[in-house]
Design goal:
mainly beta, Jelly Rolls, 5-stranded mixed sheet, 3 helices, 15 strands, hormone activity
Length: 256
């Protein structure tokens, strides 16, 4: 909180974060805050940093430091845009510096500059492309599919309840009726208290032209900023045929 600072201090507060993803909340922003992201990504040659401001982001602007220069990433005016994610390549994988500059204000009314961040090794500069790197709007081959059940953040069996499209954000949402949750990183797929049915939303790119289809699917993918992004999604019976054949050869990379 900016209220914890000495009123006349001009020193820039420094915060060191070791996590590859997290959430920072700066209440009553005053003067400046320097945030050093220093995760253990020693093996990464390239790092992409993505920032998603909170919907009520206000009171500051976010810059990234590059070669001693500050480059604007999120302005206070942009902070309130829903689902807006800014991504950029970091110059060094082991250390990224952000600079938060408080906006001038006349009173002490509460403002909060908060955002989520994710550091990704060897990812592209575009968040939506990065989120769908597993599938890229095409069917996964057998090897990709067998790896997806081992490495995805979520693996669920279910059917498609509905598909909605948002042309402004270029995102489609697949609402899934879930029969079984094999794995999920966070509680995106939850049980409805009234009906007892398990449900959950999965995001994908509008350009993938996802349509509602009958039958059961195996949905896999990764989570970004608390949302599930679609990876491989074969029909369940097709997946089981591929998996059982691979298991008979001893070629399955993990047990399902």
């Amino acid at each position: 909180s900016g209220l914890s600072r000495e009123p006349r201090s001009r020193a820039v507060e420094q915060v060191h974060l070791r996590c590859t993803q997290g959430f920072l909340e700066w209440m009553y922003p005053a003067r400046a805050l320097r945030v050093l992201l220093e995760p253990n990504l020693a093996g990464a040659r390239h790092t992409t940093l993505c920032i998603k401001p909170a919907s009520d982001f206000q009171g500051a602007s976010i810059y990234v430091e590059r070669a001693g220069q500050l480059h604007l990433v999120v302005s206070e005016a942009e902070g309130a845009r829903p689902h807006h994610v800014s991504c950029f390549s970091a110059q060094t994988p082991q250390r990224v510096a952000l600079f938060l500059q408080a906006s001038p204000q006349r009173d002490i009314s509460r403002r909060t500059a908060s955002f989520q961040y994710e550091l990704l090794s060897a990812a592209g500069p575009d968040f939506k492309e990065m989120a769908l790197v597993e599938a890229t709007c095409r069917p996964c081959d057998n090897v990709e599919l067998l790896m997806a059940i081992c490495s995805s953040d979520f693996v669920v069996k279910g059917s498609i309840r509905n598909v909605s499209h948002d042309s402004e954000s270029h995102v489609s949402q697949v609402d899934v009726s879930v029969q079984k949750v094999y794995r999920q990183k966070n509680r995106i797929f939850q049980q409805d208290e009234a009906s007892g049915e398990w449900r959950g939303p999965i995001q994908t790119l509008l350009q993938c032209k996802v349509k509602r289809g009958a039958g059961d699917f195996l949905f896999t993918g990764n989570e970004h900023f608390g949302e599930a992004w679609l990876g491989c999604a074969p029909r369940f019976k097709d997946f089981m045929f591929i998996y059982q054949a691979a298991r008979a050869r001893g070629a399955n990379p993990c047990e399902f």
